[in-house]
Write a structure and sequence with these properties.
Elements lengths: L2 H4 L16 H10 L4 H5 L11 H5 L34 H13 L8 H16 L5 E8 L5 E11 L26 E7 L12 H20 L5 E7 L15 H12 L6 E8 L8 E4 L4 H13 L5 E6 L6 H5 L4 E5 L24 H17 L1
Parallel strand pairs: 3-4, 3-5, 5-8, 6-7
Antiparallel strand pairs: 1-2, 2-4
Bound molecules: zinc ion.
Length: about 375
C-alpha cells in the first residue's frame, strides 16, 4: 500500500545538493540577517519585491546583471519522509483552475476592467460557499498624485474552537474590545497586477495566491480549522512606478492601520502571506523579515510532508506582511522569488508570467504545507 507515499508532497526538482546556499546567497543571508542590526536599521538588508537591494549591492559580483543573478541551489528531489497522519483537503488542481479564471480577466491593474472582474469573481466565489466577504474600499494617490481607488477583500471562516465574533468594520470600539486571545489566523495574498506597457497577467505574481486563497475558502468551509481563518485579498501590492518609498503595499498598509485602529491586531495569532507560489519548479527560502517561529512551523510541516522545495536558505523579503510585522503581528511570507529557469527570477514582472509556468502540483504542495500549518496552530 502506498498510503504514506500518497500523503507526501514531494517537490518537483532538478538536483540534490541538499539546499546549501551558493556563495552569493550566503552573502545575501549575511546581509539580510536580522542579527545585523545596523544594516537592518538602514534598510540596506531588505530585498524588496521589485528591488533586490542586496543584488544591487552585489551586482558587480553577479554573473549576469539585474534580478537574474540569484543563483538558486536546485531543489533536492528527495529527502527522508515522515509519516503524515493529518487529513488534508487542499486541491492543487482546483487552486490552479481558480488561477486560470482570474488570469482570464486579463491584467488586473488598479482601475482596470480586469481588476473589477477579479473583485466580482472573488466575491461571488466566496458567497457561493455561503461566506460573507467584506470589501474595504479606500482611496490612495499614486506617486504623481492621481487618486486611485482600491479594494481589499476579507472574509472570515469560523473555526471549531468557539471565539467571539469579529465586530463589523464600522462598529465603534474601545481598547476593551480587543480580545487578548489570539484566535484568528490570517491567510493573505494580493490580487492586483503591476502596470506595464506590455500585457502582464500575473499568473504567478498575484494570480497564484488568489487561486490558493479561493481554494482555502473551500477547504476551511468544508472542514474548519481549530481557529477562525480570515482570508485577505490585498489590492495595490504592486508599485505604480518603482518599489521605493511608499509606492507599494497600499492595501496591506491600509488594512494593517485599520485593524490597528480597531484594536484587532492582537486577535491575529499568525498571518501567512502567499505570493508567487505556483511555479512548476519552486524553491522557497526562509524570509528573515518574517517571524522566525512561524517560519519554523511552516518549514517543519514541509519537512513532515516531504516538501523539499522548502529549503533551509535565507532571503530577505519586503512584501504585504511587512506592515503587519512592523505593528507586532506574527507573520510569515511564503514566496518563491526564483521564478525562472535555473534558479533565476527571469519570468518575474515579464510577459512570461503566464499560466503555463504554473503547475497544480506546486499549488498542492504549498497549499497542503500551509493547510497543515494552519490546522496545527
Ligand atoms: Zn509583482
Amino acid at each position: 500500500m502506498n498510503r504514506s507515499r500518497s500523503r507526501t508532497e514531494e517537490c518537483p526538482g532538478t538536483g540534490s545538493d541538499g539546499g546549501r546556499a551558493t556563495p552569493l546567497l550566503r552573502r545575501i543571508r549575511a546581509a539580510a540577517s536580522p542579527r545585523n542590526r545596523s544594516l537592518k536599521e538602514v534598510g540596506a538588508a531588505i530585498v524588496a519585491i521589485g528591488v533586490t537591494l542586496t543584488l544591487l549591492a552585489l551586482g558587480s559580483l553577479a554573473r549576469t546583471p539585474g534580478m537574474h543573478t540569484v543563483q538558486a541551489a536546485p531543489c533536492p528531489s528527495t529527502v527522508p519522509r515522515a509519516p503524515v497522519t493529518r487529513r488534508l483537503g487542499f486541491s492543487g488542481r482546483r487552486a490552479l483552475e481558480q488561477v486560470a479564471r482570474v488570469v482570464d480577466f486579463g491584467p488586473r491593474t488598479v482601475g482596470s476592467t480586469g481588476h473589477q472582474k477579479a473583485v466580482a469573481y472573488i466575491l461571488a466565489t466566496l458567497r457561493g460557499l455561503g461566506l460573507h466577504p467584506v470589501t474595504i474600499n479606500f482611496a490612495t494617490r499614486d506617486p504623481e498624485g492621481h487618486a486611485e481607488p482600491m479594494t481589499d477583500i476579507t472574509v472570515s471562516i469560523r473555526g471549531t474552537v468557539p471565539s467571539p465574533p469579529l465586530l463589523p468594520p464600522t462598529a465603534p470600539r474601545t481598547a476593551s474590545d480587543a480580545n487578548a486571545r489570539a484566535d484568528t489566523i490570517v491567510l493573505a495574498t494580493h490580487y492586483d497586477t503591476k502596470r506595464f506597457p506590455f500585457r502582464f497577467v500575473g499568473a504567478n505574481d498575484g494570480g497564484s495566491g488568489t487561486g490558493a486563497l479561493l481554494e482555502f475558502a473551500r477547504v476551511f468551509t468544508r472542514r474548519p480549522a481549530r481557529h477562525r481563518v480570515v482570508l485577505v485579498f490585498f489590492d495595490g501590492e504592486e508599485a505604480f512606478d518603482h518599489w521605493k518609498g511608499r509606492d507599494h503595499t497600499y492595501g496591506s498598509r491600509y488594512l494593517a492601520r485599520l485593524w490597528q485602529a480597531e484594536h484587532g491586531l492582537p486577535r491575529v495569532r499568525a498571518l501567512i502571506l502567499l505570493d508567487m507560489i505556483g511555479y512548476s519548479t519552486p524553491c522557497f527560502c526562509q524570509d528573515v523579515n518574517s517571524s522566525p517561529w512561524l517560519v519554523h512551523r511552516i518549514w517543519h510541516e514541509a519537512k513532515r510532508l516531504g516538501a523539499t522545495c522548502f529549503e533551509d536558505r535565507d532571503i530577505g523579503i519586503e512584501d504585504d506582511h511587512t506592515p503587519f510585522v512592523k505593528l507586532g503581528v506574527q507573520a510569515a511570507d511564503v514566496i518563491n522569488f526564483e521564478f525562472g529557469p535555473h534558479g533565476t527570477n527571469r519570468y518575474w514582472h515579464t510577459p512570461q508570467d503566464t499560466l503555463d509556468k504554473l503547475s497544480a502540483k506546486s499549488m498542492r504542495i504549498v497549499g497542503r504545507v500551509v493547510e497543515a500549518t494552519v490546522r496545527d496552530l
